[in-house]
Amino acid sequence: MEFASQGKKELVPLASAYGRFLAEDLIADHDVPSFDRSPYDGFAIRAEDSASASAEQPISFEVVGEIGAGFVFSEQVECGQAVRIMTGAQIPQGCNAVVMLELTRQYEENGKNYMEIKRPYQKGDNISHQGEDMKKGTALVKKGTYINPGISALLATFGYHEVPVIQKPVIGVLATGSELLDANEPLQPGKIRNSNAFMILSQIERAGGEARYFGKFSDDLDTCISAVKAALSEVDFLITTGGVSVGDYDYLPEIYQQLGAEVLFNKIAMRPGSVTTVAQLNNQLLFGLSGNPSACYVGFELFVRPIIRRFAWNESPHLRREKAILGEDFKKPNPFTRFVRATLSFNEGQLVVSPSGFNKSSAVSSLAEANAFIVLPGGTRGYEKGMIVDVLLLEDLQGSEWPWHEIVPSYR
Amino acid sequence: MEFASQGKKELVPLASAYGRFLAEDLIADHDVPSFDRSPYDGFAIRAEDSASASAEQPISFEVVGEIGAGFVFSEQVECGQAVRIMTGAQIPQGCNAVVMLELTRQYEENGKNYMEIKRPYQKGDNISHQGEDMKKGTALVKKGTYINPGISALLATFGYHEVPVIQKPVIGVLATGSELLDANEPLQPGKIRNSNAFMILSQIERAGGEARYFGKFSDDLDTCISAVKAALSEVDFLITTGGVSVGDYDYLPEIYQQLGAEVLFNKIAMRPGSVTTVAQLNNQLLFGLSGNPSACYVGFELFVRPIIRRFAWNESPHLRREKAILGEDFKKPNPFTRFVRATLSFNEGQLVVSPSGFNKSSAVSSLAEANAFIVLPGGTRGYEKGMIVDVLLLEDLQGSEWPWHEIVPSYR
């Protein structure tokens, strides 16, 4: 997080702002509503004129005009007068209460219009008061907040025809591995199709970034180095997959060295994803994720996602952490903290979490149903169904403020 | 739901499939992995050759070759031989176990390479078996499922360079109301900026539709009718906001009549949104949502969202319904079922729900933080903090199968 960069502002049309992150605090620049208005169709009156109204002795008002939403009644309403008023219209000068249409009786007499009521009204009855929804000057939404439909409504209300949002970080993806086939190639003995790259493109999009795929590289070291260099010049962050384990054919350490990148860490006490590497070159982050799909997926969510959300100035960039009931046994202890791909459900409002399928770092199938990770701290004990565990939510928009590096001590 | 239409298939590049809905069942057309492979860097051996190995009497194997991921070892491995193997590489013919690199000692003798182990291995040790992740023929993901990053990985694995997805429904939005200003217009007495349209554009996008904004209409009836006619010819569904209450200036009933549209319902026993109207014309649905922001928002999520998700062939098109603890009192009973804009939180994994702010049908501010509705069934009793209530989740991808029309009887 020390090397996390933060994005600049750009303006987008309001209709395109959904799902982006706000680049400025949103502050109410006027009261909402900006005038006293009627929440109902009815008649605006002076409440004091209704004081003696009753079923036995109704009071009649002369209807001196009518006013639709968006219009202003230009005259002063006097004693004994009423104005027919539509939902949303501004209360006429002199009036201080609204009578609902269905509680009146209307009639004509001598060419004049009247309406009659059978009970008294208090000053302020049935009026939506200026500022009751939002007061001028109120800080409504913070910079770095995800723009949801409600915030779109606020932006329109306060005149943001164009919306200042944070530019999306451009994140490059480059797959390495001599075993990789493109998605459109037929299977060949010993080879697999490159699923990681497309998975990560989707993860980048889910996190709020803009993905750029640079293809797969399985050739010689020099080709890889050129590819990484070229990619770095076009992106904010670069992700490589594969080529980071201890095998003889792994290029990544060599690439980092030749680029002069500083490796921040290249081994993490966790499963899967222990070979996740993060390096920096002139403050630009390079993520070396595992070639194993599940390890790659977990590495992205734990290490890349927070960097994307921080880029967006979001104040809770990490995966949201909550408690849940473990839905299945994990009896075999593991010295390393595990992040198990899992599916959340609710039992009468109580979060329950169960592994989403085949649980190996190489697994692809379990990722399709995963919407959470179960966090099982490493140690000498196993875990049993019914225990309370930490979960990290993958489809949540809110996130957590807790930094990843604090989770480990909290379990010790 | 009887008038819900269902979308057709289109092909999109795999990199653009995230967030779309799958147009075909996804079935594994081969085993994954498609061959026995090594999960580690190490040596492939014949387990039977290691039977007598011990710390005191290590067994040596001649290393007859090496094999990287993506390559195939072409020879048969014989008694006493081993092959250096990288993570992900196919197990050579004749071998049936893998020894991890770090558990071996390697040496050279007479120009030949050897490695030595100190314990026996069983047939199958450290092998990722063909089909262990997914078996050929397994139905993995159903038509109508939201494509998340894990499903992107599956699609790549099974060679979907192009992905059959459901076309997005095009949903028109047309605002009516003489009080409306555009977002870029300065405030004027008695007028408000049109926030509903931009809110709905975002809600459409969140639900998975493609929004088309036709502007606001506050002129005469004929202009409105032409606008609605023109819009209908371009869209799958049309939403209008405003103009649907009982006021004198409301055009919508007249528009429906002149178009020859059949009004399916125009009043609902709920708050807010009681004046929500749905009509159909030649099986094309027209939604008349309230001009009040909160009522409009609720009407969209309860009535339009399910139609969008059903269009995508999704099997759980309604908002996901769960139970939660009510975080605040609602002591005043209401004869109508209320849908209160609310914010969810977790207390040790237990869902808690509290109203997200100012709670009137005209409110805009409460929508910014809303990620759920609290459902408070109508009746003669109020609700107290701590009670268990139904909630409908707004940011969930899973949805519910329950049809909206069944919620009401279940509370009676």
UniProtKB/TrEMBL annotation, chains A, B:
Chain ranges of the MoaB/Mog domain: 172-310
Highest taxon of source: Bacteria
Q: Which CDD domains match?
A: MoeA
Q: In which pathway does it act?
A: Cofactor biosynthesis; molybdopterin biosynthesis
Question: What does the UniProt keyword field contain?
Answer: Magnesium, Metal-binding, Molybdenum, Molybdenum cofactor biosynthesis, Transferase
Matching Gene3D superfamilies: MoaB/Mog-like domain (3.40.980.10), MoeA, C-terminal, domain IV (2.40.340.10), Molybdopterin biosynthesis moea protein, domain 2 (3.90.105.10), Molybdopterin biosynthesis moea protein, domain 3 (2.170.190.11)
Name the needed cofactors.
Mg(2+)
Question: What InterPro entries does the annotation carry?
Answer: MoaB/Mog-like_dom_sf, MoaB/Mog_dom, MoeA-like, MoeA_C_domain_IV, MoeA_C_domain_IV_sf, MoeA_linker/N, MoeA_linker/N_sf
Q: What reaction(s) does this enzyme catalyze? A: adenylyl-molybdopterin + molybdate = Mo-molybdopterin + AMP + H(+)
Q: What is its EC number?
A: 2.10.1.1
Known role? Catalyzes the insertion of molybdate into adenylated molybdopterin with the concomitant release of AMP.
Q: Which family does it belong to?
A: Belongs to the MoeA family.
Instruction: Supply the name of the protein.
Output: Molybdopterin molybdenumtransferase
Source organism of the structure:
Bacillus kandeliae
